[in-house]
Amino acid sequence: MEAFDLSVVWAIIVAFAIIMYVLMDGFILGMGVLFPFAPDEEARDTMMNTGAPIWDGNETWLVLAGTSLLGAFPLVYSILLPALYIGVFLMLAGLIFRGISFEFRFKAKSKRSRRRWNVAFAGGSMLVAFAQGAVVGAYIQGFKTQDKVFTGGAFDWLTPFSVMTGLGMMAGFALLGATWTILKTEGHVQEWAYGMASKLLWIVIGVFALVSLWTPFIDQSVAERWFGNIRVIWILPALAMASAAALFFSLKRGRGKLPFFATMSMFIFTYLGLLVSRWPYVVPPDYTLWDAASAPNSQMFLLVGTAIVIPVILGYTGWAYWVFRGKVRPGEGYH
User: Fold this and answer.
1) Tell me, what's the pLDDT at 332?
2) 133 and 140 in contact (C-beta within 8 Å)?
3) Measured between alpha carbons, how far is residue 196 from residues 117, 277, 335 in Å?
4) pLDDT value at position 20?
5) What's the pTM value of the predicted model, to 2 decimals?
6) What are the residues whose beta carbons fall under 8 Å from the beta carbon of 5, sequence distance 6 or more?
7) CA dist 37 → 23, 31, 118, 119 (Å)
8) How far is residue 300's CA from residue 287's CA, in Å, rounded to a whole number?
9) pLDDT tens for residues 133-189?
10) DSSP 171-205
11) Cα 277 to the chain's mean position, in Å?
């Protein structure tokens, strides 16, 4: 197998791991974003119990994406980490607060202590969602480099555009969390989630429109790709909007499962649109995936192990979701 083909295979693996993490962990981050707006403490308990058995397994996809990048595309690490160090640090700090909140909130003895863990869960989730969205915005903008070295400043990633994408990611995850809550709960918690999802849908559509209008002005190559292949590339945003329409009507009709899967498809088509817009650059605007690739022998060695690991991850993830399928009612749950 040639190096060219191996690099493409690894790009697909990394892209797959990232979108799996976004989908699997996104709804739990979204529940954290929604936590302060929940109708009562019982609703918060129920929401956390829908994610408690599975959240730590979802993190595996983030680990897989990170290690795959390091092994297959080391140049990405050497440029993006200095460029995004603060944003990545904030994301990891938020993940720590979010993770420990699952355990310590249920062990809290007093209402005051539980409120503190509510704040930790919500604050950590919001921080992670914003940081991930800001990183996406920074990636769209590109990075200042010279001779394969990052030459920009520590806060180059924080711009009006990346702030907007960060807030947009928070809204998108919140929508995913609301539709997950619809899927997994019933009664007044589910009714509240229907109302939140209906509001968040319009916010997400607004952010989607802003990003679509703003991005061509950031990079001329993206504008040329969008408008030079208008009959092909615009299929993806059209499918994303069709998913949004399916979500809108499913919420109106009180469907239980379709809102969550329609939201997931919105994420998938938007993500694919981002990849197509930047392909084949992994460190825009200068370095392609072949520029960033490690030696072919290294990629092949890692591919053997990864080909074994991915089915295992898919297997135990599917098993966990199957075991904990069905509605979560007040007073029931993992804890």
Assistant:
1) 64
2) no
3) 23, 31, 26
4) 92
5) 0.91
6) none
7) 22, 10, 11, 12
8) 21
9) 999 999 888 888 888 888 888 898 899 999 999 999 999 999 999 999 999 999 999
10) HHHHHHHHHHHHHH--HHHHHHHHHHHHHHHHHHH
11) 18
Q: Each residue of 58-85: b (16+ CB within 10 Å) or e? A: bebbbebbbebbebbbebbebbbeebbe
- Tell me which amino acid residue 309 is: V
8-state DSSP, 35: G
Q: Tokens in use for 290?
A: 């072949």
Taking a C-beta distance cutoff of 8 angstroms, is the pair 35, 121 a contact? yes
CB burial string 188-200: b at 16+ within 10 A, e below: ebbebbbebbbeb
Indicate the domain borders of the chain.
3-188+283-323
List, in order, residues 6 or more apart from 162 with CB less than 8 Å away.
Answer: 133, 134, 135, 136, 137, 138, 141
Among 185, 3, 33, 15, CA closest to 94? 33
pLDDT in tens, 9-48: 999 999 999 999 999 889 999 999 999 999 998 899 899 8
